[in-house]
Amino acid sequence: MAAQLGRRLRKGATSGAVVAAAVAALAASQAPEMIPPPADNAGGDRAIGAGDTTTPPSDGSATGDSPYFTELPPLNTPNKPGAPTNLPVITGPAEAGIPASVLAAYKRAEASVRSTDPTCNLPWQLLAGIGKVESGQARGGGVDANGTTHSPILGPALNGVGFANISDTDDGAYDGDKIHDRAVGPMQFIPSTWATWGQDANSDGKKDPNNIYDAAQAAGLYLCANDRNLALKADLDRAVLSYNRSTEYLNTVLSWFEYYKRGTHQVPDGTGVLPVDRSDDRGRGNRPTTNPPYSPLPTTPAPTTSAPESVTPDPKPSGTGKPPKTPPTTDPSKTPTTPTTPTTPTTPPTVPPTKPTVPPTTNPTVPPAVKVARLAPVATGALTATTGNAFAKAPTVAALDPSGAPVAGVSIKFEIVGTTDARFSGGRTTATVLTGTSGMAASPALRAGEKVGSFTVRATVVNRTLAAAEFTATVTARQADTLTRLDGEAALPATTGTGFTQQLRVKATDKGALAPGVLVTGLVVTSKTATDAAAEGPYFKGEAGTTARTKSFTTDANGLITLAPGDLLAGEKAGTYFLKLTAHGGGSVFVELTVTAPEPTPEPSTPEPTPSTTDSPTDSPEGTSSPSPSA
User: Which string of DSSP letters, residue by residue, matches 129-172?
Assistant: First the structure.
């Protein structure tokens, strides 16, 4: 049975029942993991293999529902069921061989689409299934080194005779027909569809539907339209039906898709198996023909004698004495019948075929990004800002289509590139913005960090490989054109070996406004004309007790720098020095420093010795009184 069915399949399916049986056989014999096709009318679709009895409408179809090859894959699979599908296949059935350039184009298209639309889950085997059905893999791989077919692959004129009626849309540029459109190239795009979805996948500067790389990538994007996820059976069916709105076409493509998933191998270009049977060879409108029930005669068929009707004979003998017109029946058990007069021939009633409901499809919505031909920078002037401040202008781009018209709704990614601490609002280095009705998009507010220098803001179209628009932004230090002492002009005094005890305050302004965050450099010099720091004299106390005669300051929120008492030390050499303060932007001021030696301490003088007085007997003329002797 399988062999007989295989022969029928290779001759081309001639009815919906044959196709349904073929798909069932393939599913049972070679693809146990295949998602079964829908067998009910859920979603308005028909059962796989139901065939087409009406010409599907052409709108929303990539090919204009042009004819396609109807041969189904053989029943013997490239690999046994359950074998790994990601291993290279070196040999196998001839039908499993795909020409080298064609296979490379399918895999390259899958990688490209997956990089920009990973949620679509596009498998290259689906592209191979469509390529097989549409053009026999570019006529068996008849392409040159760049992937372009040796001669254009053209479908029949879509003139409404058996196909859709599509008037010329490209002035014959792609199909050479200025009256009607034709499907073009290995993936059979009609010109109007190619105008929207065409790609330049091989980067030769042309979008050529006869180039397998360009056509395969365009087909991948087309199948992924409308946010489809091809891992879902419903989306997979819708994608294939959007390519050609025929359920028999869907059956055929999915059969090859499953077949290629079981394994393929590469064959040299030009040696692929060429299909023979095509849908338009079997009848008008991409439908199988049926054997007519009647001979091909004129409109009114030849008269025929209808079957005699049974009547009850008159029991009386005939009065004419003539034999009856109808000889007696040979079966004596049956009552003789009298023939009736033949009726006038009638034309058999024609029962119009029931038209199955064509599965509703939605015209693919062309993503705005696909319409964009280039991204143009909009002149906004120089992008400059001082450290810590916002840029006055934002990088702005315009998304334009091939005619130069603006494209709205395009996602533009802005990215800060380079060594910088500048950021978009929210502290981000990337931001995505949609273009407005004017086709323009501006980045979020950009603020400079503390690093001085230039960096790049790059703008690209999301999910496209178009050339980027780049802007150079420059961050400069904050400026102050004037520095002013707030405590007078008097010199600051100190003695050697001590620190300056007075507080020093200096205000920075730029164009009359306070200048916060300005870098100010302090340098101790010996004169107002000196350019180098003094070798001796006052100094700043550095870390770990080091000395320095140069120091940097940053003005506070009020534009002030302040030296507290003891921040500046006098040093060991007396003299007159200057603290030169200079700000980026030209502001400067000198503060005189006077260092004096300390007053010498007078040595204490030695006092003259004073002679001391000692006690000695004193001669006195008077004698010492003594008591008189008593008588």
Answer: HHHHHHHHHHHHH-B-TTSBBSS--B----BSSSS-B-B-SSTT
Q: What is the pLDDT of residues 506-515, one digit of tens each?
A: 999 999 999 9
Structure tokens at 474: 């420059």
Give the percent of the chain with pLDDT over 70.
Answer: 68
For 495, counting Cβ atoms within 10 Å of its Cβ (0-12 exposed, 13-18 middle, 19+ buried), the class is middle
Long-range contacts of range 24-28, CB-CB < 8 Å, 24 or more positions apart? Answer: 25/75, 26/72, 26/73, 26/75, 26/255, 26/258, 26/259, 27/258
**Within 246-378, where are the H helices?**
247-261, 368-371
Q: What local confidence, expressed as pLDDT, does residue 361 receive?
A: 55
Three-class secondary structure of residue 440 per DSSP: strand
Q: Band the pLDDT of 150: cuts 50, 70, 90.
A: very high
Quick check: helix, strand or coil at residue 561?
strand
Buried/exposed 190-199: b ≥16 CB within 10 Å, e otherwise: bbbbbeebbb
Rounded to the nearest 5°, which phi and psi values hold at 384? -135, 150
CA 208 vs CA 98, 153, 194, 247: distances in Å: 21, 12, 9, 29
- Comparing C-alpha atoms, which of 445, 443, 444, 453 is closest to residue 386? 453
- As a 3-state breakdown, the chain gives helix, strand, coil percent values, each rounded to 5, of 20, 20, 60
- H/E stretch holding 93 reads none
Lowest average pLDDT, out of 65-79, 256-270, 572-586, goes to: 65-79
Q: What is the mean pLDDT of residues 27-31?
A: 35
Q: Which of 52, 50, 49 is nearest to 25 (CA)?
A: 49
Confidence of residue 347 (pLDDT cuts 50, 70, 90): low
Position 148 confidence tier, pLDDT thresholds 50, 70, 90: very high
Instruction: Tell whether the model's pLDDT for residue 176 goes beyond 70.
Output: yes
> Could you give the C-alpha distances from 380 to 383, 394, 449, in angstroms and in order?
8, 7, 21
pTM across the whole model: 0.42
Give tens-digit pLDDT for 287-306.
333 333 333 334 444 444 44
Residues 6+ apart with CB under 8 A from 160: none
Counting every residue, how long is the chain?
631
Kindly give, in sequence order, each residue whose CB lies less than 8 Å from that of residue 410, ignoring residues fewer than 6 positions away: 368, 369, 371, 372, 399, 434, 435, 439, 441, 461, 462
With beta carbons less than 8 A apart as the criterion, state whether 5 and 30 touch: no
- 243: burial class by Cβ within 10 Å (0-12, 13-18, 19+)? buried
- The 3-state DSSP class for residue 6 equals helix
326 compared with 412, residue with greater pLDDT: 412
| The residue to which tokens 């996602």 are assigned | 411
